[in-house]
Design a protein that fits this description.
Radius of gyration: 22 Å
Distance between the termini: 9 Å
Order of helices and strands: HHHHHHHHHHHHHHHHHH
Number of domains: 1
Low-confidence stretches: 1-7
Largest sheet: none
Mean pLDDT: 82
Number of helices: 18
Shape: globular
Structural class: mainly alpha
Helix content: over 70%
Oligomer: single chain
């Protein structure tokens, strides 16, 4: 596209297809892992895994100086063909800081064992297990650094390969370990999975950029100061996110309920994150490269919202309609309480296709403090709504809370981006947002009030109509762009 390849619908759809396919393969692989976990460990084991993952996320957050985001941003601004030496130097900077963060992670893991065990466990029998996470804590920053280098240098096909192989190897390891060791295999499995992820990223990244670090060179730390400046608010934001998750786990009454919530949240966030994950990999570098051009920036953001919303709408509707079948397929009958929770969270899923492109704007400008304030506001609303609605309606209340937060976040982000970054959501997109929200609300109401037969009899034809309209609309837009470029 000659006019603006950064924001063309053809370009967006191209990378949605590439990384969407990757995400679909990851989902299929994760289905097997989720099913085995549910069968062998049950809701209690799922809840325990959620608590352990929250501990690892806190450790990661303490040293999460935004290496991936800041690294991608800085590498994206370097023309690799003309300034390959600068790319190599920046890769060494990112790797050196990643290794330093990995060493600090080990110290944090030991500190948590001695001083903060009671935050995660109400009883003492699990405290010692925090020390067992040292291998995972060490390899998490290494993976983040290698991922930043691959994405920042636009080696997106290699990123896709890495994600597929990493997922397959970790899923196979999970199935084998849980099958043999059951609950006792949770911690070894988590460590092995993070080691595999780091190994795969290192293997592919070092083929383009041999592994070089310089922990004792002053120049490396000087060049890394912009990463640190950007990353401190980012790290605080990550910690707030972990604290939010910890608060939600404490609001929920039991480990089994935590397991149910975690399973439902995984369905809402991860299995429905195909479009968002596939677009974010390509979208952030594109947005960064045009953030100083008001017209191109507006065009990039609005087209990203338009395409994401168009594709997400029929997928969210299908997800809600098929929830009873999905839960039985992915888990066991013990997890049936999450069906209503996931149904009520439909608006949250839909509005993520709007909020995610808007969230990246502050990061593309390097305004990590703005990102921190926005995320803090989001988490405060989430904790407050979860506390009150869970006390009233249990897990169903959490579903309502998520939808409330999703819509509120769209409003807040649109206002902030309008006044601080001169980004205005077009009238066409606002109409699109309102109409698709109404469609999802109708689907939610249909599933909550009708029998299974009526759910499928009315829901499936509606989904087909929406999907057909989406296909024709996007095809027409691509043809229009092609004609205008010639």
């Amino acid at each position: 596209m000659k006019n603006n390849p950064h924001s063309s619908i053809h370009h967006i759809l191209k990378y949605i297809s590439i990384f969407g396919s990757v995400e679909m393969l990851k989902i299929i692989a994760n289905l097997a892992r989720g099913k085995v976990t549910a069968l062998l460990l049950g809701p209690f084991g799922t809840g325990l895994i959620a608590i352990y993952q929250n501990i690892l996320e806190l450790i990661r957050s303490c040293t999460n100086i935004g290496l991936e985001t800041a690294g991608i941003r800085q590498l994206s601004e370097i023309d690799e063909k003309e300034h390959i030496d600068d790319v190599i130097i920046m890769a060494r900077v990112i790797r050196s800081w990643s290794l330093l963060m990995a060493i600090i992670d080990i110290l944090i893991c030991v500190a948590l064992f001695f001083f903060a065990s009671n935050i995660f466990f109400k009883e003492g029998q699990h405290h010692w297990e925090i020390l067992m996470f040292i291998p995972a804590a060490f390899f998490i920053p290494i993976t983040i650094g290698e991922c930043a280098i691959l994405k920042g240098t636009h080696k997106l096909k290699r990123v896709a390969t890495v994600e597929v192989l990493g997922t397959i190897f970790t899923v196979l390891s999970t199935i084998v370990i849980y099958s043999i060791f059951g609950l006792k295999g949770i911690i070894p499995c988590l460590n092995i999975c993070f080691i595999i992820e780091a190994s795969v990223h290192l293997w592919f990244c070092t083929q383009s950029f041999p592994y070089r670090v310089a922990l004792f060179e002053k120049e490396i730390y000087v060049k890394g100061l912009p990463l640190l400046k950007f990353g401190i608010p980012y790290a605080i934001t990550s910690i707030i996110g972990v604290v939010t998750t910890t608060c939600i786990y404490h609001i929920i009454t039991s480990t089994e309920q935590v397991g149910l919530y975690k399973a439902g949240y995984a369905l809402i966030m991860y299995y429905m994150g195909v479009i968002l994950s596939s677009t974010a990999t390509d979208y952030f570098p594109r947005l960064t490269s045009v953030c100083n051009d008001k017209i191109k920036k507006n065009e990039t953001v609005n087209k990203q919202i338009n395409v994401g919303l168009s594709i997400s709408t029929p997928i969210v509707m299908l997800f809600i309609i098929a929830l009873p079948l999905s839960v039985n397929l992915l888990f066991t009958s013990d997890f049936s309480p999450i069906i209503t929770m996931c149904t009520l969270a439909g608006l949250f899923q839909l509005h993520r296709s709007i909020t995610v492109p808007l969230e990246y704007v502050s990061l593309a400008h390097g305004h990590s403090w703005m990102f921190f304030l926005l995320e803090a506001t989001y988490n405060i609303i989430l904790i407050t709504s979860t506390y009150y609605l869970y006390s009233l309606w249990g897990l169903e209340g959490i579903g309502i809370a998520l939808s409330t937060v999703g819509v509120s976040n769209t409003v807040v982000l649109s206002i902030v981006n309008r006044f601080f970054y001169n980004i205005s959501i077009t009238r066409k997109n606002w109409f699109h947002i309102i109409s698709t929200s109404c469609l999802v609300c109708f689907t939610m109401l249909l599933c909550l009030t009708c029998t299974d037969i009526l759910r499928y009899a009315l829901g499936i034809p509606l989904i087909l109509i929406v999907a057909t309209h989406t296909y024709h609309s996007l095809t027409k837009s691509v043809k229009k762009e092609y004609n205008s470029s010639n």
